[in-house]
Design a protein that fits this description.
973 residues, elongated, alpha+beta
C-alpha cells in the first residue's frame, strides 16, 4: 500500500482505573517532613535540603540494604522463570513461599516487610530529589516495591491474579508519587525589581507644567495691573548741597544740587498692591529670588519670562519627541523605533546571584495536554470498474465508415477551459496519472492549514487534528471516539480530494499544435456485408481504491501559550540599527501661528532645522535722551534760562509705558533755593525745584512712533538731564513676528516631510525589490527558534541567566569553564533531545492579546511573507510540541523536580495525573508490529480518462444490493 498523507490526532489520554498505579499507603516520617515543608515560603529549596540531609544520614540506596532485599530479589528471579501464561495466584504463592520460607499472610505482617516498604519509598523520593543520587539503581528499588505490592494483592485478593496478564500488569505498574509532595512547588522566581519605574519623566513633567502655569498666571496678573499700582513718587535726596560742593556754597556766591546716588522704588509695585497679589504669583516671584516692591516691574517680568522659557523648553523636550518615530526596514518589515528621550536609559539590574548554581533547578507548571496518535492514510488499488456510457458508435447494415485524423504543427497554442465535457471524443493512446489521489490529498490538507496563521503541519507528522471530549463527559471512551473521528477526517479528505479530481477532469483543455511531422490515423468501420446493424458501446473506466488509516504510535504533547513571540526579535532589530540606517519621521506640525510663542519657537526651529528666523521682539525696550546746557557767563543775555525740546523716537511695534528722568545742575545765586527746571514728556509734566528731589518717574499714555519732550530752566547756570522711556511691545508686533516665523517653520517642515516621504518610498521600493532579504524558509527558522526559546523558558521557569561557560583566560582570550560547560552540556542536550522540536506546530493569535501600548505599532508591521507578518504582529502564539518517544519519564521527572535525570534507566515513577499517558505509551511500546489499522477501510472511486468497449450490445443497468449500494448487473459489464 502507498501512503496518501499523514496527520496526528490530539486527544486526552485514556482514563485508567485506580489499580493501574501503585500508591504509597502510609507516609513515612521523611515524606511527612517534605509535606510539611511545602508551606514554607522557599518550599522548593527547603525540601531539597531535607532530601540532602536524609541522603547524608544514610538510607537504603539499593535493594541489598533492605532487610528483606535478598528474599525480594529471589522472588523476582523465580517469577521471571515462570512462563507468562502460567503466572497466576498459585504460581505466585508458591514463589513467595519458596523465597521467604513463610506463607503469604505471614510475610505481609512482618515488621521487616513494613519497614522495607517505607524505606523503599523513601529511597525513591530521595533519589529523585538529589541530583548526585541519580546513579543509584532506581529500577531495582521500584521493582522491589512492585513485588511487595504483588504480595499484598495476593494476600488481599488472590482471585484477581488469575485473570490473564494480571500478574504482569501488577509487576509493570507505574509508581504514583505522593501528591502532597510532587510536583515540587516552583522555585520563587522574583521578577527582577529592576530600576524603580521611571517616574522621573512624569514627575518632572508634572512639576514643570505646574510651575509654567504659575508663571504664566503671574505674568498675566502683572500685565493687567493699573498704573496707579506702580510707585511714581520722586525720591528725596539726603542733602541738597553735597559735600563736594560745600566750599562753593560757603562763599555765598553759588549753589549746587545733585540727585542721590541710586534712586529706588521707582517703577515698582506699591507695598499694598504686592500684598494683594495671588499666592501663585507671589510664589513664582519668590522662586526667582526677587521682591516685587524692590524690583522694577519690567525686570521682574523679564526674569519671569526667562524662567518660563526654560520651563517650556523642558516640556517640549519631554512631550514633543513622543511624536517622532524612526522608521527602519527590517528585512522588508517597516518598524518604527521608539522616540529618543532626554532621560538616560534605566541601568540594567545586576545579574542574579548564581554562585551556588551551575544550571537552573527551576521548573514550570506546564503539564501534557494529552497524547497524539501518528496516523497514516494508505491506499491500495482494489479494482477497475465501468460507469456511464462515454460514447456509442453505430454502423448500419451495409454501411462503411472511414475517418482520417491528421495533426500539423503551429506556433500558436490555444487553451480553452470548459465546465462540461463534449459529447463525442476520439482517442487513440490514453494514459492516466498514477499518484493523482496522493497529490490532491496533500493539497487539500494544505488548504485546510492555510485557514490559520502559523505552521500546523510538521515535517514528519503532517497536520495536527485536535479531538477533545466535553469537560463534563467521560474521557474513558476517548480512544474509540478519536478513532472514529480520525477515520471520518481521513475519509473526508480523500472524498474532497476525489471530488477535486472529478472537477478537474470536467475541465476540457484543448490544445492545437502543428508539428513538423504529420501524423495520420485512419479508422475503418466496414459493415457492408454485415447481416445486421452494429452498435459499439464505450463506457468510462473508474479506479476503485481501498483506503485505511494506520496508527504508528503515540506522542505526548505539550500545549504552550507564548505571549508576544516576536518581542525579543523586534527589540533586537531596533537595538542593532546603526546610525544612518534608520529613517527619522519628522514630527507633525500641528500648531497654528497664534500658538507660536517666544518660548516654544526654538523647539520647532531645532526640530525642522529652520534658518533665517528672527528672534521674537523683546517685551520691554528702553529709549533715552539727554539734555544739557551751560555754564552761563555773567554777561549772558539769557543768564539762567535754558529752553530745549525734541521728539523721542519710539521703535516700531512698541508703545511708551514709563518715563524716568534724573537731574544734575548748579547755580551761582546767593539764594540757592530759588530755581526751577520744567520737564514735559508727552502729556506728563513735572517741575524740579527746591521742594522736589532730582529723580522722577511717571506712567505714559501708550504713545507710538514718537513722544515729544520739552525742558525749560530758570536761574540755573548749568544742568544735565537724562531721560529714559520704557516701551512695551504691542500685540500687533507679536502677531507680525508669529506670521513670519510660522511661515519659515512651515516651509522647513514641508521640505523635511517631503525628504522623509521620498526616502520612505525608496526604502519600501528597495525592500520590495530585495524580496525582504530572507526566504520564507529562513523566516520559519526564525519563528521556530524564538518559539523554542520561549517554550523552554516556560518549561524551565528561567531566563538562561546561568548559562555562562565561557571565561576569560590568563591570556585575555575566551576559554571554557570546564565544570560549568559539563553541567550545561547535560542540561542543553536534554532539552534539545527530549522534545521533537522539528515537529513543533504553532498558530499565531492576534495583536490584541499583547501589551496595549504596542497595539498601534504592531498593526503597522508589514511583510510580504504573511506568516512572518503574523509572527511579528502576534499578541500570543499557541505551540504544540511532542515529546520524543522514550523521553516521557525523563521529562516528567524534570517537571516534578526541576532536575535533569542523569542516571540510567528511569522507571515509571510519576504523578497520578501523568499515569494515563504513561500507561498508553507502555501499551504502545508493548504492542506487536509497527502499525495498527484504525477504524474500517473504505473505498475511494476516482474517474479516469480511459474508456472501455462493452462486449455486449445491451445497454448497461445497475441494481441496488442489500447494503443499499448500486452495482451493475451481470450482463452489464
Amino acid at each position: 500500500m502507498e501512503d496518501l498523507f499523514r496527520f496526528f490526532l490530539v486527544r486526552p489520554a485514556t482514563k485508567v482505573g485506580p489499580d493501574a498505579m501503585l500508591h504509597m499507603e502510609q507516609p513515612t516520617d521523611f515524606i511527612a517532613q517534605l509535606r510539611d515543608a511545602r508551606s514554607n515560603v522557599n518550599a522548593n529549596r527547603v525540601m531539597r535540603d531535607l532530601a540532602q540531609r536524609f541522603v547524608s544520614n544514610g538510607y537504603a540506596d539499593s535493594v541489598d540494604k533492605l532487610r528483606l532485599g535478598a528474599k525480594l530479589q529471589s522472588l523476582g528471579k523465580k517469577l521471571a522463570d515462570v512462563p507468562a501464561d502460567q503466572l497466576n495466584a498459585s504460581t505466585v504463592k508458591q514463589a513467595v513461599v519458596d523465597a521467604f520460607g513463610a506463607a503469604v499472610a505471614k510475610v505481609v505482617v512482618l515488621d521487616d516487610f513494613v519497614k522495607d516498604r517505607g524505606a523503599a519509598w523513601d529511597a525513591i523520593i530521595a533519589i529523585k530529589l538529589v541530583r548526585s543520587e541519580h546513579g543509584r539503581p532506581l529500577v531495582t528499588i521500584v521493582h522491589a516495591i512492585r513485588l511487595m505490592g504483588l504480595i499484598e494483592r495476593l494476600a488481599e485478593d488472590p482471585a484477581s491474579l488469575n485473570r490473564p496478564g494480571a500478574v504482569k500488569a501488577l509487576l509493570e505498574r507505574p509508581i504514583a508519587l505522593p501528591a502532597e509532595v510532587f510536583p515540587l512547588p516552583p522555585t520563587p522566581v522574583d521578577k527582577p525589581a529592576g530600576p524603580p519605574p521611571d517616574t522621573s519623566r512624569e514627575e518632572v513633567l508634572k512639576a514643570t507644567h505646574k510651575e509654567a502655569r504659575q508663571i504664566r498666571a503671574a505674568l498675566d496678573e502683572l500685565a493687567f495691573l493699573e498704573p496707579r499700582a506702580l510707585n511714581e513718587d520722586s525720591l528725596q535726596g539726603p542733602d541738597p548741597v553735597p559735600v563736594p560742593m560745600a566750599a562753593v556754597a560757603r562763599r555765598g556766591s553759588s549753589g549746587a544740587f545733585t540727585p542721590p546716588a541710586a534712586p529706588h522704588k521707582l517703577f515698582t509695585l506699591k507695598p499694598e498692591v504686592a500684598q494683594k497679589l495671588s499666592a501663585g504669583t507671589t510664589a513664582a516671584i519668590k522662586n526667582i529670588g526677587l521682591t516685587p516692591t524692590e524690583t522694577r516691574i519690567d525686570r521682574l517680568a523679564h526674569k519671569l519670562e526667562t524662567r518660563l522659557g526654560h520651563m517650556l523648553e523642558t516640556i517640549a523636550e519631554l512631550e514633543m519627541p513622543e511624536r517622532r518615530k524612526n522608521v527602519v526596514s527590517v528585512g522588508g518589515t517597516l518598524i518604527q523605533q521608539p522616540p529618543v528621550t532626554i532621560f538616560p536609559a534605566p541601568q540594567a539590574m545586576p545579574a542574579p546571584d548564581t554562585s551556588q548554581l551551575a544550571v537552573p533547578d527551576t521548573h514550570g507548571n506546564i503539564q501534557p495536554v494529552g497524547v497524539a496518535d501518528l496516523l497514516i492514510v494508505k491506499q491500495e488499488l482494489k479494482r477497475y470498474q465501468v460507469r456511464e456510457l462515454a460514447h456509442i458508435e453505430n454502423v448500419l447494415m451495409g454501411e462503411r465508415k472511414e475517418r482520417e485524423h491528421k495533426r500539423a504543427t503551429t506556433t500558436e497554442e490555444i487553451i480553452v477551459s470548459e465546465t462540461e465535457r463534449t459529447t463525442e471524443e476520439e482517442r487513440e493512446l490514453e494514459s492516466t496519472e498514477r499518484f493523482e489521489m496522493k497529490h490532491e490529498s496533500e493539497e487539500t490538507i494544505r488548504e485546510d492549514a492555510r485557514l490559520e496563521a502559523g505552521l500546523k503541519i510538521s515535517g514528519k507528522y503532517g497536520l495536527a487534528v485536535e479531538f477533545e471530549t466535553y469537560a463534563n463527559g467521560s474521557i474513558s471512551d476517548s480512544r474509540q471516539r478519536s478513532t472514529r473521528h480520525a477515520s471520518e477526517y481521513a475519509s473526508e479528505v480523500t472524498n474532497r480530494a476525489s471530488s477535486k479530481i472529478t472537477e478537474r477532469f470536467r475541465q476540457q483543455v484543448t490544445r492545437r499544435i502543428l508539428r513538423q511531422v504529420e501524423e495520420t490515423n485512419r479508422h475503418l468501420l466496414d459493415n457492408v456485408n454485415g447481416p445486421e446493424h452494429i452498435s459499439g458501446l464505450y463506457q468510462w473506466v473508474e479506479k476503485v481504491y481501498e483506503a485505511q488509516v494506520f496508527n504508528y504510535g503515540l506522542r505526548t504533547l505539550y500545549d504552550i501559550t507564548v505571549p508576544e513571540p516576536a518581542s525579543l526579535l523586534i527589540a533586537a532589530l531596533k537595538k542593532n540599527i546603526t546610525e544612518g540606517e534608520g529613517l527619522e519621521k519628522p514630527a507633525d506640525l500641528t500648531i497654528t501661528p497664534n500658538q507660536l510663542t517666544e518660548f516654544n519657537y526654538n523647539y520647532f526651529v531645532r526640530e525642522y532645522e529652520v534658518t533665517g528666523v528672527e528672534p521674537p521682539p523683546e517685551r520691554y525696550v528702553t529709549v533715552a535722551k539727554t539734555f544739557k546746557a551751560g555754564p552761563d557767563t555773567d554777561d549772558s543775555e539769557t543768564r539762567g534760562v535754558h529752553v530745549d525740546s525734541a521728539d523721542l523716537t519710539i521703535p516700531d511695534g512698541y508703545e511708551a509705558l514709563w518715563g524716568h528722568a534724573t537731574l544734575a545742575g548748579m547755580n551761582y545765586w546767593d539764594n540757592i533755593n530759588e530755581w526751577s527746571i520744567d520737564l514735559s514728556i508727552g502729556r506728563r509734566r513735572v517741575r524740579f525745584n527746591t521742594g522736589l528731589s532730582w529723580a522722577w518717574g511717571t506712567t505714559l499714555d501708550s504713545e507710538t512712533a514718537a513722544i515729544p519732550v520739552a525742558i525749560e530752566t530758570w536761574r540755573v547756570m548749568n544742568f544735565a538731564l537724562g531721560l529714559e522711556v520704557t516701551c512695551q511691545r504691542t500685540a500687533r508686533a507679536v502677531e507680525k513676528w508669529q506670521q513670519a516665523t510660522y511661515a519659515a517653520i512651515l516651509q522647513a517642515y514641508q521640505q523635511k516631510r517631503s525628504d522623509y516621504e521620498e526616502k520612505l518610498n525608496a526604502l519600501r521600493t528597495r525592500a520590495g525589490i530585495v524580496i525582504e532579504g530572507r526566504s520564507p524558509d529562513a523566516n520559519r527558522q526564525i519563528e521556530r527558534s524564538e518559539l523554542k526559546r520561549a517554550c523552554i523558558t516556560l518549561l524551565t521557569r528561567q531566563h538562561f541567566d546561568l548559562f555562562d561557560s565561557i571565561e576569560t583566560g590568563a591570556t585575555g582570550l575566551p576559554q571554557l569553564d570546564l565544570t560549568q560547560a559539563e553541567m550545561e552540556g547535560t542540561y542543553i542536550r536534554f532539552f534539545e533531545q527530549a522534545f521533537e522540536w522539528e515537529n513543533m506546530t504553532y498558530v499565531f493569535y492576534p495583536y490584541f492579546w499583547g501589551r496595549k501600548e504596542d497595539w498601534l505599532e504592531r498593526l503597522r508591521y508589514e511583510n510580504v511573507d504573511p506568516t512572518f507578518e503574523a509572527f511579528l504582529k502576534a499578541g500570543a502564539a499557541r505551540v504544540v510540541v511532542p515529546a520524543r518517544p522514550g523521553f516521557e519519564p525523563a521529562i516528567d521527572h524534570f517537571m516534578s523536580t526541576g532536575m535533569v535525570w542523569t542516571g540510567g534507566e528511569l522507571p515509571p515513577v510519576t504523578s497520578p495525573d501523568y499515569v494515563p499517558i504513561l500507561t498508553e505509551i507502555q501499551e504502545q511500546l508493548g504492542a506487536p508490529g509497527v502499525e495498527v489499522p484504525q477504524g474500517e477501510p473504505w473505498e475511494v472511486v476516482l474517474p479516469t480518462t480511459l474508456v472501455y468497449l462493452r462486449a455486449s450490445r445491451e445497454l448497461p443497468r445497475w441494481t441496488k444490493n442489500a447494503a443499499g449500494e448500486w452495482e451493475p448487473t451481470e450482463d452489464s459489464g
